[in-house]
Amino acid sequence: MTSPHHITRLWRDFVSRYPRDVALLVPSLALVAAAGVSYAFILKYTTDGLSAGDSRVIVLAPLAVLAAAALRAFAMWAQAVQSQELALKVLRDLQSAMFGRLTHAEYARHAREAPGALVTRFTNDINVVSEAIVRGGQAMIRDTLTLAGAIVSMLALDWMLTAVVLGVFAFAGPALSAIAKRAQRQTEAAQSQLGALSALLAES
101-107 long-range contacts, Cβ below 8 Å, gap at least 24? Predict the structure, then answer.
């Protein structure tokens, strides 16, 4: 099974049960992205105002920065609370489903599989899923919106420089992709070793 299959199954069987939580989480992520992108426009307003000799910038620019920072802080707090709440609900349902499947499994499977391996699935593996829901889901939505907003703001401020930057990233894309895949393989190996260690400690 591929990783996209697991993500699709997790969404279909568990996350989609809570549309209200998802609907509350998405605006918080969008607000975090918008507040982060707003710094570029504040900086542009500040530099243009100082170049034009507008003294109001000295007062308005710090106020705008404080407002953007406060908005981002509030959105990040709401994002953390809502994502943790959603993750706990999903993990509760996931553990219940795992326990239900385990209690109805054949005796041969219990005899074949070490008790420590079963314990680590309910502890270490569940923690990995929790991190994936909290961090992975946030990054997929929030960072995508932040990137889209950053590109739009860059195009609005200087389209020529934006084209140069995008060209550099397109050239460096294959190398960055190779580094990301290697890091993913190392992370998977580390998680497997951690699971084996947890199973060994549970049996000792």
Answer: none
Instruction: Please tell me the distance from the alpha carbon of residue 152 to that of residue 156, in angstroms, as a whole number.
Output: 6
- The CA angle 97-98-103, to the nearest 5 degrees, is 100
Q: Say how far apart CA 178 and CA 14 lie, in whole Å.
A: 32
From 102, 123, 87, select the one nearest 10 (Cα to Cα).
87
Which two tokens mark 115? 């008790």
Domains of the chain, residue spans: 17-203
Domain spanning 17-203: CATH superfamily: ABC transporter type 1, transmembrane domain (1.20.1560.10)
pLDDT of 150 strictly over 80: yes
Q: Are 153 and 34 in contact (CB under 8 A)?
A: no
- pLDDT tens track for 67-100: 999 999 999 999 888 888 888 888 888 888 877 7
Cα gap 93→99, rounded to integer Å: 10
Q: Could you give the CA distance from residue 166 to residue 148 in angstroms, rounded to a whole number?
A: 12
DSSP single-letter state for residue 54: -
